[in-house]
Amino acid sequence: MTKFRYLKPAGKAIFKDRYTKKAKELLTEWSTGKTASFGIVGLPLSKPSISHSGAATAPSTIRDSLQSYTVYSGEQTFDLEEEIIDFGDIEMHPTDITGSQERIYLGLSDIFKTDAAKNWFLLGGDHSVTYSAIKACKEQFGSVGIIQFDAHHDLRNTEDGGPTNGTPFRRLLENGVISGEDLVQIGIRDFTNAAGYHNYAVENGVTVYTMKDVRGQGLNTILTSELEKLSSRVEHIYLSVDMDVLDQAFAPGCPAIGPGGMDSSTLLEGINLASQHQSVKALDIVEIDPTIDFRNMTSRVAAYVLLEYMKGKRSA
To answer: Are β-strands 144-149 and 183-188 bridged in parallel, bridged antiparallel, or unpaired?
Structure first.
């Protein structure tokens, strides 16, 4: 066999330092019987977005952004050594939106039945994917409480536009998948929602923290309180991270950017704290459009969110 000198396979020609391991190297393909602490699945759906969105391309970009980081935590002085079993992406139908949402539900149901991972990373896509994901989680694992990091309530009615990225939590409530007391919304922003949807949240027992609340009380204080309340009610807690909870300066790749949001350090610290709670078992990241991002800034934050989650579980 002919051997070529100084040649690496295309796509893998990345500088290798003998002492450094990149976070992307933690990703490993699933095979029957394989188990790990973490599993990851891409949910590349963005056609239900109210505004133009290329969020369907985000799962691969977030994975690639893991290459920007090492596995070593200098703050905790340990390496992240746990593999992340990568199941790939759920295949979407090219034209059928509700059919694609059903595929996410069915595909995740199959994946969750493998019991391959203790914690799940689900990469959207727009926020419409969260409805299907939580529905599958509840059926496989039992009752689910949600902590939603978001500038928007995502409680829009379905009559005006169908199951868009603005409706996932309305659908979860109306279809009895969760009750209002199971949903905590953090980071809701001024001049970003409608009174009717704020009132709907209050009337249905949803706990809402605005950005003013976050600035006044502190995210960690809020999370500590709400994690305890949720864990007394449900078996598992699901973190849903809409990246537009961040200020536009930190997330230029979100379709619905705006000022007055959270900074990335606050979000990362909150994810680390939340993941240390034993009831927290899943996290989704949604609403990143790499086609409008700048140097993949937003996807890099998303990749860091995954690492902070893993660091929190290791530190717990």
So the answer is: parallel
pLDDT score recorded for residue 7: 72
Buried b (16+ CB within 10 A) or exposed e, 139-159: ebbebbbbbbbbbbbbbbeee
Residue keyed to tokens 């391991």: 21
Among the listed residues 238, 255, 235, the one whose alpha carbon sits nearest the alpha carbon of residue 246: 255
3-state SS of 73-122 is ECCCCEECCCCEEEEEECCCCCCCHHHHHHHHHHHHHHHHCCCCEEEEEE
Question: So what's the pLDDT on residue 1?
Answer: 64
Examine the pLDDT at 255 and tell me if it is beyond 90: yes
Rounded to 5°, the CA angle 118-144-309 comes to 45
Strand pairing partners for 120? 39, 282
Quickly name the fold that domain 23-315 has. Answer: Arginase; Chain A (3.40.800)
Cα 91 from chain centre: 18
Structure tokens at 92: 């979407």
Q: Given the structure tokens 């902070």, which residue do they identify?
A: 308
- Domain segments of the chain as ranges: 23-315
Residue 281 confidence (pLDDT) above 70: yes
d(CA 192, CA 155) in angstroms, rounded, equals: 12
Biggest CA pair distance of the chain: 71
Is the predicted pLDDT of residue 11 greater than 80, yes or no? Answer: no
Contact status, residue 144 vs residue 235, Cβ threshold 8 Å:
yes
Reported residue count of the chain is 316
Burial bucket for residue 99 (CB in 10 Å: 0-12, 13-18, 19+): exposed
Does the predicted TM-score (pTM) go above 0.85?
Answer: yes
